Amino acid sequence: MVSRRPRRRGDRRCRVVSGDAPATALRARAIEQSFGDVDVLSGVSLSVERGEVAAIVGPNGSGKSTLLRILAGIAAPDGGSVTVPRAAGGARSVGYLPQRPAFREGFTARDTLGFYAQLLDGVDDEDVAATLDRVGLSGVADRSVGSLSGGMTRLLGLGESVLGDPSVLILDEPGSGLDPAMVERLFGVLGDLAADGTAVVVASHELPAVEAHADTVHVLDEGDFGASGSPAALLAETDTGSLSAAFLQIVRAEVGEATVRSGVGSRPSESESDDERADGAAETGAESREVAADE
Predict the structure, then answer these.
(1) Domain boundaries, the chain
(2) What strands lie across the sheet with 16-17, from one edge to the other?
(3) Adjacent-strand bridge partners of 290
């Protein structure tokens, strides 16, 4: 089933609270965010279940990174709420992988995860070794970060974000710049994590991988989700043969609706550049790796 949501305005409050719904790992309601006079997010709502891979796709500058930072608790929105149930036993609630993770090149892969493990309660060397194996880096555990390929470095970032077994994993363009084989490998790891019960939220332009591995796809454009549903449902709704084709049709329809509402011939290029600058500006803040649910 494909869901198309109307635009709406939420209240001017933000809450990150603990909840008790066992199946729902993350729920966002009416998220709003503006930068200056640019409305980047206009009432975005999202619910992600445990064991679900939820993909967020959209044009450059559509607000994907801004939304992910809000979901991870790194940035506070102008309005709306984010609810993450309290993780059992003091475990991490949310793990976050930014689009451009940075590590000390002189550290080994094992050193890197060992460093982050010290920041988490109850995570030891055995957990580090298990995490390296989990993301497929056991064979290069003692190689320096500087000697790793781009894909392996991205897997190392994934390993850091899953230390402590967070109930929710949020990733911003993890496949950016990787070859197709490494993208497939990375999304395969995400599928394995979901099979273990982790809720995965991933923003990606790698639409073939999204089509193959995501349970639900949310198309973000013009400040809200233009359509949401399983890959198969989106293809059926748009009568297309691939998620790439479905995406283009949905985004074009969104632009057409905006044109009718505004009475102009096309989306103004200056608005698009403002939106891109706003989304980029939101990425420059401190990149925390964890959000804890309120006690």
Answers:
(1) 16-100+169-291
(2) 16-17, 79-83, 24-35, 38-49
(3) 95
CATH number of 16-100+169-291: 3.40.50.300
Q: Is 106:146 a contact under the CB 8 Å cutoff?
A: yes
Angle formed by the axes of helices 231-238 and 243-262, nearest 10°: 60
DSSP string, 223-268: TEEEEEE-HHHHHHHHT-SSHHHHHHHHHHHHHHHHHHHHTSSS--
**pLDDT tens digits for the chain (295 residues)?**
565 544 333 333 333 334 444 589 999 999 999 999 999 999 999 999 999 999 999 999 899 999 999 999 999 999 999 999 876 655 568 999 998 888 998 999 999 999 999 998 889 999 999 999 999 999 999 999 999 998 899 999 999 999 989 999 999 999 988 899 999 999 999 999 999 999 999 999 999 999 999 999 999 998 999 999 999 999 999 999 999 999 999 998 765 555 444 444 434 333 343 344 444 444 433 333 333 333 3
CB atoms within 10 A of CB 178: 22
Does the reported pTM lie above 0.85? no
Give the total residue count for the chain.
295
Question: CB neighbours (10 Å) of residue 104?
Answer: 12
Strands 168-172 and 94-97: parallel
